[in-house]
Structures are given as C-alpha cells and as structure tokens.
Recover the amino acids of this structure.
C-alpha cells in the first residue's frame, strides 16, 4: 500500500490475510480506538464475484449483533479501495490457541463449543449460513470469549447463491459432504464444521486429513466417521456420540439445530460441574468444632479436687480427631465409589460399541475392535465369549488380535484354557499358535495373583474400621469420666 492511511483509519500492522481480503489492526482517528480493518487488495478488485462477496459480508455483519459474533462498525470505499471496520479482538484465533496449548480437556472444549453454538444459533435465526466454520475464524478475547468472524462466504437464505452449481467454496478440512458436492447448503453444513472443530479441540487434528485436497474431500465423502474415544479414552461417550452425529455424511441426519447441540453439551458438562461443586462444599463442611472448658472451683483446705471436667473435655477433643478422619475417609470412599460406578457405566457402553464392531463390522474394523478391547481394565463375560468366537475366525489377523486381547485379560479368560490349548496345537498360523501359548502362560500366572483393586478395597475398609474403633474407644472413655 502506498499510504498507511485509509481515512479515517491509520493502518498499524497486518493481522491476517486470506482469499477474501487482508485484515489490519488500525486506529480510528475520531477517538483513538483500536479496530480491525478488512479490505480487498487493489489487484483483485476487478473480480465482480469477489467484490459481491465482500459487500455481502459487510451487509451480513451489520445485521448481526451478538456477544459471540464480531461486531461490525461499517465500511466505505476510498479510491476504489473497499474496506470495513470491526471490533479488534486482541487474543488471536482459536487456531493459534490450539497450536500454542495443544489439545484441550473435554470440559474446556465443551465450554468453547457452547459459545460457538450460541453464535451459530443467532446467525441461523437471522437466516445466515456461515459456510466456513473452522478454528481460524473464531477470534479469542483475553477473557476467553470466542467471537465468530469472516462471513465472506456466508449465504443469505433469502437471497440467490453467488456460488455456481458444481463449485465448492470453503476450507476442505472442515467442509460438509454436501458442500463438497456443490449442492445447496443449509445450517447443517455449519453443524458439520462445528463437529470438525470440536474433534480438533479434543484430539489436536481435524477428523480427516490427507496429502492433497482431493484425498481430503474423498475422505469426507467416504471414510467412516472417526470416534474421539479411540484417541482420548477419557472423553465422555455422550460427547463422542454428539460429534459423530455432527459428522453424519447425510445432511438430513443433521436435522437438529445449534440450540439443540448447546443443550446436549450442557447436559454433558453440568453433571460433572455439580459433582465438583458438591465435593468442594462437602469437604469444606467437615471441620471439628472447638470445645471450651468449664473451670471448676477448688475445694478443701489443703488442695483441689481433680478437674475431671477439664480432663474429659481434653479427651473429647482428642477423640474428635480420629472420628473426623474416619468421616472424611468414609466420604472419600463414597465419592470414589460414585465416580467408579459412573465411569464403569460409560466403559460398559464403550465396550458394547466395540463388541458390535467385533461381531459385524468390516474385517479391518473388527481387528481394531479386538485390539481396542485389550485397553479396558476388565471385560464382561459376554465380551470374552465374543473374543472366543473371533479367535476361531477364518481371518488369521483377527484371530491373532483376539488372542492377544485374551492374553491381556488372562484372569477373565481362564475358562478358555482348553480352547486356547486346541488353537496352540492346530492353528495353521505360527504367529497365532505362539500367541495362544503365551496366553495360556498368562492364564496360569493369573490363577495365583490377587487383584490390585481387591487389595485397595480391603485396605480402605481396614483404615476406616480402625479409625472408627479408635474414635469410639476414646468417646467411651470420655463418657465414663463424665
């Protein structure tokens, strides 16, 4: 640019550049306020389609006033240079944040996703489809608030399309299948992009990638929907299920709204937050109260009567300590038991999903399912039975994967010893025979082993009982003195 001014703004430094224009940090001379100015480079102003999109973005942003959408102040044209000013968000983009911080915890990702849903819910209610939902188009304030920007590809439902039939516009890593095919898009395309963004926040990468654009597009169209729990086991199953719903290939299967997605996200997040709050309040309330002593007047001529009340108070105070410890340990045990039951319920659901793949999926998916089951701490008896069936499959690689998982869960596979001995002697694959022998050896070792979970359980029980007995004996002694 020949000048650093585009009246009434002084352009300070470039914030970003893309196919739809260049964004600068700028100073408004009227009040010295910092803003962001977006303009189209002069060399491409001759393209009427680009100009139409740019002018439409300006009109769209003027309509949208929401805390999670970048606010537009208006625009103009100076010396054939088209531009508009919008609020300056100094925190950078979500894409830069993910590069700096790496994958987010699932609750942090939900916090961000709820803000995204609020922006999309409002935009869709105004008849606006963004069509380019990606981390780079969410700006981050220093407070952590997200703001959706870059409506250059937005499609106004009430207007005709500027994109010709058969052409695709957007970012391929986050583009919905119907958008790739050049079909008419609805709000469901934005929800697909939202699913891609949530997947990336959790795993650190988009759901589909490739060495070139054609490969990525083909994967969006044809590849199975990836599961976050396969990469992030601590991800709640409800969140994994929601992401799969958002990434449905058929737009009609994404018939829900951004508001519906926000409700489901809150439903996943709130129970966890309530549990954390309950823990904090519960343990904060456990504090022993101080017991004041009552002075006793001395009696007799030559001395004083022993102050049994003071002594008993001291005994009572000392008795509070083991009782408090016992109460806290009991509360900890109850909380651990509750958390364990919740986690166990989620694991059972995940185990059932893998069993479905193990029984009826494609050969490659069946092998993945067999290997994934080896990562579970324990398996249901029905799952062991399905692994036995897989160990007799005509597919050698599947037999190998099933036996390796049975070896990992040797204690639960003891009933299959005879079957594994038969496989060790008769299987046509030497690798399968070797692995079956190793599984048999592990089963024999496990017959004399004690489960760590059992040891932990009885240790906690003994600590609680011992603390209770000590506290009870001291209270009994105190009552006798009183």
């Amino acid at each position: 640019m020949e000048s650093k001014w585009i009246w009434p703004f002084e352009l300070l430094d470039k914030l970003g550049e893309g196919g739809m224009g260049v964004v600068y940090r700028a100073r408004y001379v009227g009040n010295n306020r910092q803003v962001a100015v977006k303009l189209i480079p002069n060399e491409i102003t001759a393209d009427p389609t680009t100009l139409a999109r740019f002018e439409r973005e300006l009109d769209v942003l003027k309509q949208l006033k929401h805390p999670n959408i970048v606010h537009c102040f208006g625009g103009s044209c100076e010396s054939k240079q088209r531009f508009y000013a919008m609020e300056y968000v100094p925190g950078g983009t979500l894409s830069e944040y993910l590069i700096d911080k790496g994958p987010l915890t699932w609750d942090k990702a939900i916090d961000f996703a709820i803000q995204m849903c609020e922006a999309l819910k409002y935009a869709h209610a105004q008849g606006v489809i963004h069509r380019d939902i990606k981390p780079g188009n969410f700006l981050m304030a220093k407070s952590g608030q997200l703001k959706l920007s870059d409506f250059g590809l937005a499609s106004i439902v009430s207007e005709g399309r500027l994109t010709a039939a058969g052409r695709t516009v957007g970012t391929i890593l986050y583009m919905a299948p119907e958008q790739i095919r050049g079909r008419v898009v609805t709000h469901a395309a934005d929800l697909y992009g939202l699913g891609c963004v949530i997947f990336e926040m959790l795993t650190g990468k988009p759901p589909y990638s490739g060495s070139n654009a054609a490969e990525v597009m083909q994967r969006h169209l044809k590849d199975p929907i990836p599961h976050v729990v396969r990469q992030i086991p601590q991800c709640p199953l409800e969140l994994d299920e929601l992401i799969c719903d958002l990434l449905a290939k058929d737009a009609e299967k994404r018939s829900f709204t951004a508001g519906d997605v926000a409700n489901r996200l809150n439903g996943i997040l709130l129970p966890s937050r309530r549990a954390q709050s309950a823990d904090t309040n519960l343990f904060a309330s456990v504090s022993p109260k101080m017991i004041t002593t009552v002075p006793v007047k001395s009696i007799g001529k030559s001395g004083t009567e022993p102050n049994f009340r003071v002594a008993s108070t001291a005994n009572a105070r000392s008795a509070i300590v083991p009782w408090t410890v016992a109460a806290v340990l009991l509360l900890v045990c109850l909380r651990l038991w509750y958390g364990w039951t919740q986690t166990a319920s989620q694991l059972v659901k995940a185990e059932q999903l893998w069993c479905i793949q193990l029984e009826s999926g494609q050969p490659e998916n069946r092998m993945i399912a067999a290997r994934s089951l080896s990562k579970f701490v324990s398996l249901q008896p029905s799952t062991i039975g399905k692994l036995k069936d897989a160990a007799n499959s005509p597919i050698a690689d599947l037999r190998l994967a099933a036996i390796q998982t049975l070896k990992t869960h040797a204690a639960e596979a003891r009933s299959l010893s005879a079957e594994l001995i038969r496989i060790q002697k008769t299987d046509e694959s030497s690798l399968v025979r070797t692995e079956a022998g190793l599984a048999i050896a592990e089963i024999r070792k496990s017959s004399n082993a004690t489960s760590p979970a059992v040891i932990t359980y009885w240790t906690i029980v003994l600590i609680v009982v011992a603390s209770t007995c000590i506290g009870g004996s001291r209270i009994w002694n105190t009552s006798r003195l009183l």
